[in-house]
Amino acid sequence: xxxLKKHIVNFLFNVLNSGAYKRHAQNKINEWAKKSFxxxxxxxxxxxxxxxxxxxxxxxxxxxxxxxxxxLEAWDRFMGETFTPEITIGDDVIFNSDVHIGAxxxxxIGNNVLMASRIYISDHSHGDITVxxxxxxxxxxxxxxxxxxxxxxxxxxxxxxCILPGITIGENSIIGANSVVNKSFxxxxxxxxxxxxxxxxx
Length: 202
Fold this sequence. Notes:
By secondary structure, this protein is an alpha/beta fold. It has helices at about 1-15, 20-35, 130-135, and strands at about 40, 50-55, 60, 65, 70-75, 75-80, 80, 85-90, 95, 100-105, 105-110, 115, 120, 125, 145, 150, 155, 160-165, 170, 175, 180, 190, 195-200. The longest helix is centred in the first third of the chain and has 18 residues, at about 20-35.
């Protein structure tokens, strides 16, 4: 009996790790994305490990790819409030692993953007850091947006970057690893630090 169990386990392991099974699983994910997203471009691929909230508010262009643990959240309702979120990702965008994007307002990512791992982009926060909001626990504070986040074309975002609400990153810019970006920068900027500052202009 133990030999039979071992044979079954080995068989299932081989099947689950076979190219055919992975292709089938990927096809099912892509079929779901095409039906569920506002738009989902040709040759775009979601990773097997993903968490998507309200894909009907999310548009993804062609040739998008991401490694595992992709998290896209479009919040249209929270604690009795309603929102009209929008997440737009352009063409030929590449994410590494553990990218987390959350919107109640608008987040726009342009074409040819490259992101490393462990990146957080949000257009909102829990509360407005007022006396009234601080009377509540963080999880009980209303969601508040300072404005949209816009990342223009050809931006390269390094490992561990956090991009906060209400900012624009100009085209062709580079953001250094572990930066916290809390203000806008024009095109061709190299920025880094906590908070991020301009290192040089390309």
